[in-house]
Amino acid sequence: MAAPYSRLLDLAKVQCRIFSLNFNPERLRLGNKILRQRLRGPALAAWYPRKTVSFRDLQETCSRSGLTTFDEYEDDREEAIQVAKLRGKGRPKKKRTAAESRSAKKKK
Amino acid sequence: MSHFRAKIQDLGGFINPRVVRDHTKRKVFAQFEPDRQALRYVIHNTSLPQRVRAQAQLQLASMHAYTRSTQVKNRCVAGGVPRSVIRAFRLGRFQFRMQALAGELPGVRKASW
Fold first, then answer.
1. pLDDT in tens, chain B (113 residues)
2. How far is A97 from chain B (nearest CA, A)?
């Protein structure tokens, strides 16, 4: 024997309340499917690998607490600059005023 | 656009301008996704007045292009290549091949039968 429609409606109502669904027997378009969708933003934003701790960060924390670190690359660079200066191949002196830069151009 | 771009990048892997741009778009999309979904809800809800829905449509259409998910492109994490990127590894086909042959991808081996 088929149950009356009102009973089925009641059942559907209780079902919706228990499972926290939207009770909508007239099947109106209420846009609830948009609310049901999950946000995709966090998954998309996690595509590229993020920056992790670098040697420079370590140096920074060390220098903040008063410790000294040794960076071989930086040391080599400074040494090379010193050698270049001795050979007279260092960087030219910075022109501070407009007149100085103009005179430098004229020499050519 | 440049006003969305972070002054200091938080990217760790391969970086080029196109990767930075795509990363920016992803972050902007994540930031504005709730707004977009709210507007879409208003647009899809037929019980709301037509005027409100039309206004929501206009507002959604006038949002910046970077807040759209269609602007996002999957790029190779190791080389920035936008084509034939294997999603499960986030690598372009050639980077995938090189890393797989070098044994850097666990569980991947060259097929042979």
1. 788 988 888 888 899 999 999 999 999 999 999 999 999 999 999 999 999 999 999 999 999 999 999 999 999 999 999 999 999 999 999 999 999 999 999 999 999 98
2. 31
List all residues 6 or more positions away from A101 whose beta carbon is below 8 Å from its beta carbon. A95
Q: Do A31 and B45 touch (CB under 8 A)?
A: yes
Burial of B71: CB neighbours in 10 Å, binned 0-12, 13-18, 19+: middle
Report how many domains make up chain B.
Answer: 2
Domain boundaries, position B84: 74-107
As a whole number of angstroms, the distance between CA A18 and CA A21 comes to 8
Whether B2 maps to a domain, the answer reads no
Place of tokens 């499960």: B88
Q: Which of B12, B26, B44 sits opposite A29 (nearest CB)?
A: B44
* Pair (B56, B97) in one structural domain: no
Taking chain A, what is the end-to-end CA distance rounded to the nearest angstrom?
108
Burial, B106: exposed, middle or buried (Cβ in 10 Å; 0-12, 13-18, 19+)? exposed
Instruction: Say yes or no: B64 and B91 in one domain.
Output: no
Minimal-distance CA residue of chain A relative to B76? A48
For A48, which of B19, B29, B46 is closest by C-beta distance?
B19
